[in-house]
Structure formats: C-alpha cells, structure tokens
Sequence to fold (161 residues):
Amino acid sequence: MIQNYKIGIGYDIHRLEENRKLIIGGIEIPHEKGLFGHSDADVLVHAIIDALLGASGLPDIGTLFPDTDEKYKNANSINLLQNVVEKISEKGYKINNLDTNIIAQAPKMMIYIPKMKQVLAPVLNIDLNNISIKAKTKERLDSVGEKRAIEAQAVVLLYKE
Ligand code: ZN
Fold:
C-alpha cells in the first residue's frame, strides 16, 4: 500500500518591485509592490507546481516552463498549474493533500487565504479541507523580513489507486 504514495517538496522566492501586480495563490492582492518574474511570479503556485513535479518524478518548473521562452512571459501561473495537474494525472497520480507556507513581512496574507483555497481547489481537484495555506512573517530578518521578497514552501502527498 505505502508504495502508492509519493511526497514532494517545493520552494520559491521572488523579489518585490514597483509597477508589478502582487499575485499570490491565483489572486491579486492590493499592495504598493508586486513580485517580479518572467511569468506573473505567483510564488505560492510555483512552490506548489515544484512539489507536484517533485513527487511525480517529472522535471522541475524551470525545465518545463523555461523563463527564456516568450510563451511564458507574464503567464498566468494557474494555467501552468492546470497543465502540471494534467501531467501528473496522466501518470496515474491524484493529490491527497497539500500543505503550504507563504512567508511575507507585508502585506498581511491571512484575509486572502480563503479565496486562494477556492481558486486552487478546483484546479487541484481536491476538497478545500485538503488544502492548507499558512501565513508567516520573517520577524523582519533577511530580504523577506525587509519587505524586498516573498517566499513560499509547499509539501504535497500524491497517491495512486
Ligand atoms: Zn517562481
């Protein structure tokens, strides 16, 4: 039975810059800065994608969606996530549950978490109860604590029936 389970870990960080939208967990969050990147720089969705790819033994996000490819410029990361969920389901995997951290000194993430879960659940094909999103600060330490970047971590458990 246990050999039907696969666990995966994902991590991401993006710089906060002016004149960018702040997109995290598939939703736009009002803030004076946004995350910088080739795509929409959705740090949480990127961490989730890498956890799914790692668990299923597929190449990582940078290999699948290279930032040198114009196709992914300003890409909606939810669409990339959808693509990855299709790839893992082709390999016979389903998602058991997902646990994540968003690490940001500002803005406060807590009030946006229910909406993020509602966006992610149908894409991941799992119940809201199987998605955990936790918000942390960095106690004003390091680049994240100085509001120059936002980090995310994700752990996912896949299974085959
Ligand atoms: Zn990223």
Remarks:
- Strands lie at 5-17, 23-24, 27-28, 34-35, 94-103, 131-136, 149-159.
